[in-house]
Batch of 2 targets.
Target 1
Amino acid sequence: MAAADRPLVVVLGASGFLGSAVVRALAAGPARVRAVARREPDVPDGVEVHVTDLARPGSVAEAVAGCDAVLPFAAHIRGPSGWRIQEGDETAERLHVGLVRELVDALRDRTGGPPPVVVFPGSNTQVGRVAAERVDGSEEDRPEGVYDRQKHTAEKLLTAATEAGHVRASSLRLPPVFGPSPAGAADDRGVVSTMVRRALAGEPLTMWHDGTVRRDLLYVEDAARAFVTALDHAGELAGRHWLLGTGRAPSLGDVFRAVAAAVARHTGKEPVPVVSVPPPPHVEVSDLRSVEVDPSAFAAVTGWSCRVPLDEALARTVAASAER
């Protein structure tokens, strides 16, 4: 197939932790890839680079011109409390909601061929409080935090655009994703990688609870492969959200002890202690609630499954963090 005949996939936020992983996964396939980022990303050979500030009006339409599919990973998750978003954070609102609104507008007037595909990265915490710890995507959504509400609003914009026939959009709702960050990409600031860095520094690993809170944790390569797989099943997935996860949710106490042990094996030192501490003022209800994800609906449609066991994923993350 001639290069011009291959589908063009645009990755917005290509220098981020997950966006950069998806670019690498896409580059190994047949599609043309355009990596869009605010700074020059480090990409595999053959990937087109488009440097722009997606907060600038008109930049989204320029970035996705001529595309067949878009993966919008651009995000703003810093703020006064680390990865938290506060009410009134205009930059976060712009990137999480405004960007999607502009994306829909840019793709709406496309003519010829099927509607462009959009695979959106949602969060499994968008569901809010549910009676059961295990979620499968059939629950009624009641998003609580600012970030979850913004993600939910963006999802609804894409669902409406799909119903109107302008795009074929789906949302893959992610659990906490962790793993090594490649050179030139944003660091993974999630809880697992944060604890790896602390253990490498010889610091104790702290929990805001007694360690029994359970989380489904997804390795970054498995997450990236899910987005690539979703592109191949765009028609079957369009119009709804799908949950990603391993189907298992170990306690964070066990995970943190496994992190300490993995670092000890790598360094030859004694494992750092894992301790409980009082939660900080910015703690949210979701931080203290166990969540286990059932990804079987997505797996049944696409054939996707997790391939990297937790112990191996932790060992890779430790090795990469120590090298950096």
Note: The longest strand covers residues 117-123.
Target 2
Amino acid sequence: MPLGGPRVTRVRRTLPQRAPSFVGAWCFVDHYGPDDVVLRGGMDVPPHPHTALQTATWLFEGEMEHRDSLGTHAYVRPGELNLMTGGRGISHSEVSTARTTTLHGVQLWVALPGEHRETARDFQRYAPPPIRKDGAGI
């Protein structure tokens, strides 16, 4: 499915199962890229709402800009994790940055348990220090 129009990033969505009405803690996983942003136009998702769930965004390549109704302005970069809690309701947008030539990442959608569906909306960014061992790094 295209994310933001026909000439932008395509997303492959993985559902655990289609038949049951409740699919478990992970609603689904969206995988996008690797996409040549110069050719395809990148990600350009206008403001849209989320409720009763969390999204965890993790990039392998590229950079995206996140803005939301809490007033958060953050970037999603490789090796970092952005966690957005919809709770009672949050609206946000996601756009590839001008520096991005290739975009590749995943977004995990987490169903909040019933007692937490109306929790406060939130946004957190985790940027761990790089780990290097025996010539390899993450």
Note: The mean pLDDT is 84.
